Amino acid sequence: MTHWFHRNPLKATAPVSFNYYGVVTGPAASKICSDLRSSRARLLELFTDVSCNPEMMKTAADSYFSLLQGFINSLDESSQESKLRYIQNFKWTDTLQGQVPSAQQDAVFELISMGFNVALWYTKYASRLAGKENVTEDEAKEVHRSLKTAAGIFKHLKEAHIPKLITPAEKGRDLEARLIEAYIIQCQAEAQEVTIARAIELKHAPGLIAALAFETANFYQKADHTLSSLEPAYSAASPKTQGRGALGLPPLRTGRHRGATSPKPVE
């Protein structure tokens, strides 16, 4: 389990000032823009802060996303989108295609990309906990919970926000349906591996462990099938794992999670 998700880097992004001279008038509007800038910077810092925990991440993410909603939804709670949705250009790199950024002048693109990084953080946090020498029962539950949270975020982005993009996701990019679905399934599979490891530790019946392993193997096969239609250049870099629990092998203890390396700023 120590090899979970340490392969794919976090998405990097260009700084955003949220300075709209001539558009923003009044101290209240200026305060909101200042809070947006600081809350975005704070969230980006936490992605690579080894002392960050899920509670800190949730607080920072909620703070930024609640402010960003003003750039997406109309303030009068109508079905109309905000007039500010397309005022700012956002740049983000891809987890699979190196430091080549994608850019869209769309606040929904920013919400999805930042949310994607939040989900990735939960997988890396789970990996770090699982890589400890002696994982307690509470820590195992936290690993399981973090992976389920990541899967839920990916699923929400795919179903609720990605369809709203004016510019469709590029082929082989993170936000393409097949890739984000693979991330969802892998999170589910790795959460199931926690259940298998616990069942082995508690010496549950071999039949139960075998059934769980078979179900987990099906998760990985489904992820592989989801990616099978991608071109080789994309699928070679896709988020696949060996699924040792699904193969009936003991959890990996041969390496250390390398942690979340700080993504380089995008020009």
Textual characterization of the structure:
It contains seven helices and two strands; from the N terminus they run ααββααααα. By secondary structure, the chain is mainly α. The protein folds into two domains: 15-76; 89-236, Serine Threonine Protein Phosphatase 5, Tetratricopeptide repeat. α1 runs antiparallel to α2 (54-68) and α2 (54-68) runs antiparallel to α3. The longest helix is centred in the middle third of the chain and has 25 residues, at 137-161. The two termini are 35 Å apart.
Characteristics:
267 residues, mainly alpha, Serine Threonine Protein Phosphatase 5, Tetratricopeptide repeat, 2 domains, two-stranded antiparallel sheet, disordered N terminus
Question: Strands, helices and their partners?
Answer:
Blueprint lengths: L26 H21 L6 H15 L21 E3 L9 E3 L2 H24 L6 H25 L15 H25 L4 H22 L4 H4 L32
Antiparallel strand pairs: 1-2
String of helices and strands: HHEEHHHHH
CATH top level label of the largest domain: Mainly Alpha
Measured on Cα atoms, how large is the radius of gyration? 20 Å
Helix amount: 40-55%
Enumerate the strands of the largest sheet in spatial order, edge to edge or round the barrel.
Answer: 1-2
Oligomer: single chain
Annotated CATH topology of the largest domain? Serine Threonine Protein Phosphatase 5, Tetratricopeptide repeat
Strand content: under 5%
Task: Name the shape in a single word.
Answer: globular
Chain-averaged pLDDT: 83
Q: What's the CATH architecture of the largest domain? A: Alpha Horseshoe
Count of DSSP-assigned helices: 7
CATH superfamily of the largest domain: alix/aip1 like domains
Q: Outline the biggest β-sheet.
A: 2 strands, antiparallel
Estimated structural class: mainly alpha
- Total number of beta strands: 2
Instruction: Give the number of domains.
Output: 2
* Uncertain stretches: 1-5, 239-262
Distance between the ends: 35 Å
